[in-house]
Write a structure and sequence with these properties.
Largest sheet: 7 strands, parallel
CATH architecture of the largest domain: 3-Layer(aba) Sandwich
Strand content: 15-25%
Order of helices and strands: EHEHEHEHEHEHEHEHEHEHEHEHHEHHHH
Radius of gyration: 21 Å
Low-confidence stretches: none
CATH superfamily of the largest domain: Glycogen Phosphorylase B
Number of domains: 2
CATH class of the largest domain: Alpha Beta
Strand order of the largest sheet: 3-2-1-4-5-6-7
Length: about 375
């Protein structure tokens, strides 16, 4: 039996890790899993030492609030490692936690595979030295990442992006014969972490109210699997009691494809929306101190993954104070009303799927993990 430690700290990492594990079990059906994760990894058979939702936040100052719990989870994982050492550790994204964990595992002689690269090529590049020392192999989603790591002495393998398999190709509402026959639909994706939702949902709802004053629009709020729907319902009643909001907990991809425009939190969700071809406005807000520190440390031409992948400003990005109800509503209405603007964005989004690589990313990642597992006697 092979024993594997898995540590995934966010909803997208939890999902991608679970897909990898499912593929790995075809070769190692008796795999023994334990670690940090949420519902997807638990469903994949992981013994949950802690739920990643407890420590999944955005922003530097926000991290301070969960630091005590993060330290306790860190200790619990290492206690289990010391009690019954794994053959291999699979660390998924979540770099502030997982790179520290990689260092401790390296000290204990536990080989580490890192899946979904920390964006060290964008900020805090010095972390690559830790990765080179403590990580046996890093599995990256984008081809340029593999080249960047190899130039710095890290064994990196480009496996492609699992979203290519996870997000289906669906008919897009703007391609129908009469796209507005049943009215306009606005979708809200405020994120998969409570801190994101607290930062973005009030402005999203207020902007939706502005749009509905001049257009006949149905507002749909898509609930991430990591969020309690009742919490979102209560937030909507408190923040926008006069706005009719449909809460969507299933068929999120069909809802996005059937929407005319999406207001989207920056992150993996922008790639999901891009793969489905739906026009979007991307929003990002941090507390002032977190934003100031990020500006000082990050050197990127864009903050949304979809624009970074496309290497152009294909979709509008509203950052910090710009992510206010008036500006958000203006950008949403521009997409709804201005056909050239909408067509340019949709043409750019049509390139997202080819840019993310071939299908089978989870299977390729699983083969790399299998290659790093010690041979069983």
């Amino acid at each position: 039996m092979s024993r594997l430690l898995v540590a995934a700290g966010e909803a997208s990492g939890d999902l991608h890790a679970a897909r990898l594990i499912s593929a790995l079990r075809r070769d190692v059906p008796d795999l023994d899993l334990f670690g940090l994760g949420s519902d997807e990894l638990v469903a994949a058979g992981m013994q949950q030492i802690a739920d990643s939702r407890e420590i999944s936040v955005v922003g530097i100052t926000e991290v301070l609030k969960i630091l005590g719990r993060a330290k306790a989870i860190f200790r619990s994982l290492l206690e289990e490692v010391d009690r019954n050492p794994p053959d291999l550790a699979l660390l998924v994204d979540f770099p502030d936690f997982n790179l520290r964990l990689a260092r401790e595992l390296h000290r204990r002689g536990i080989p580490v595979v890192y899946y979904i690269s920390p964006q060290v090529w964008a900020w805090r590049q010095g972390r690559v030295r830790l990765i080179a020392k403590c990580v046996r192999r890093i599995l990256v989603l984008f081809s340029f990442e593999a080249d960047w790591y190899r130039e710095r002495g890290v064994e990196a393998m480009h496996v492609g992006h699992p979203l290519v398999d996870e997000v289906p190709e669906l008919p897009q509402i703007w391609d129908s014969a009469d796209p507005t026959e049943n009215g306009l639909r606005l979708a809200l994706l405020p994120g998969s972490r409570r801190s994101e939702i607290r930062a973005l949902l009030p402005a999203m709802l207020a902007s939706a109210e502005r749009v509905t004053r001049t257009r006949e629009v149905t507002t749909q709020l898509i609930c991430a699997p990591s969020i309690d729907p009742e919490e979102l319902r209560a937030s909507c009643r408190e923040l926008a009691p006069d706005l009719a909001v449909e809460l969507v907990t299933e068929d999120r991809f069909a809802t996005i494809a059937g929407s005319h425009v999406v207001l989207c939190a920056s992150g993996t969700a922008t790639l999901e929306v891009g793969l489905l071809g739906t026009p979007m406005v991307v929003l990002y807000r941090l507390k002032p101190v977190s934003y100031w520190l990020a500006r000082a440390l990050v050197d990127l031409p864009a903050f949304s993954l979809v624009n970074l992948v496309l290497e152009e400003n294909a979709v509008p990005e509203l950052l910090q104070g710009e992510a206010n109800p008036r500006r958000i509503a203006e950008e949403a209405l521009r997409i709804l009303d201005d056909e050239p603007t909408r067509s340019r964005q949709r043409a750019a989004l049509a390139r997202v799927r080819p840019c993310l690589g071939a299908t089978g990313a989870s299977e390729r990642a699983a083969k790399e993990v299998l290659a790093c597992l010690p041979a069983r006697v």
